[in-house]
């Protein structure tokens, strides 16, 4: 998928194989009103992500507001937590190096902290 971002930079963003068919089906069933609009829902152009996002959050019954931008942080955190390559993740997100990714976007989970602690060899095991 080719993504055009605010800086007029173009990036190729890989799409997971298991959702690609769903996205193609969505596109084919709902692209009757594309008229230069990339995202549609039920034959209506989505011109404001924020407005649509707020409506969907409310419809889903989510009581705490979640910003669309939070998905970017979630992507980075999960991609790193599940062993994604830092350089690849940085490039997907549009960063030239991993510093921005690690400084701003990665949020550790408690299970990652436990795993990090448990990865340290048990030095006391051989001290009998």
Describe the protein's architecture and organization.
- The mean pLDDT is 79.
- By secondary structure, the protein is mainly alpha-helical.
- The termini are far apart.
- It is built from six helices and four strands, in the order ββαββααααα.
- The chain has helices spanning 17-30, 49-59, 70-81, 86-93, 98-105, 110-118, and strands at 2-4, 10-12, 40-41, 44-45.
- The strands form two sheets. A two-stranded antiparallel sheet has the order 1-2. A two-stranded antiparallel sheet has the order 3-4.
What's the helical proportion of residues? 40-55%
Secondary structure class reads mainly alpha
Order of helices and strands: EEHEEHHHHH
Give the neighbour order of strands across the main sheet: 1-2
Query: What would the principal axes of the Cα set say about the shape?
Result: elongated
- Tell me the major beta sheet: 2 strands, antiparallel
Q: Give the strand tally.
A: 4
For the terminal residues, how far apart are their CA atoms? 59 Å
| Average pLDDT reading | 79
Approximate strand percentage: 5-15%
Cα gyration radius (Å) = 20 Å
Number of helices: 6
Low-confidence stretches: none
């Amino acid at each position: 998928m080719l993504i055009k971002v605010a800086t007029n930079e173009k990036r190729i963003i890989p799409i997971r194989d298991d959702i690609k068919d769903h996205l193609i089906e969505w596109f084919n069933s709902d692209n009757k009103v594309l008229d230069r609009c990339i995202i549609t829902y039920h034959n209506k152009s989505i011109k404001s992500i924020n407005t649509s996002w707020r409506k969907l959050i409310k419809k889903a019954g989510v009581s705490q507001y979640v910003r669309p931008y939070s998905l970017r942080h979630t992507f980075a955190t999960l991609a790193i937590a599940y062993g994604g390559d830092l350089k690849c993740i940085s490039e997907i997100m549009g960063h030239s190096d991993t510093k921005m990714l690690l400084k701003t976007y990665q949020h550790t989970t408690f299970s990652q902290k436990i795993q990090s602690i448990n990865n340290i060899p048990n030095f006391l095991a051989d001290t009998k």
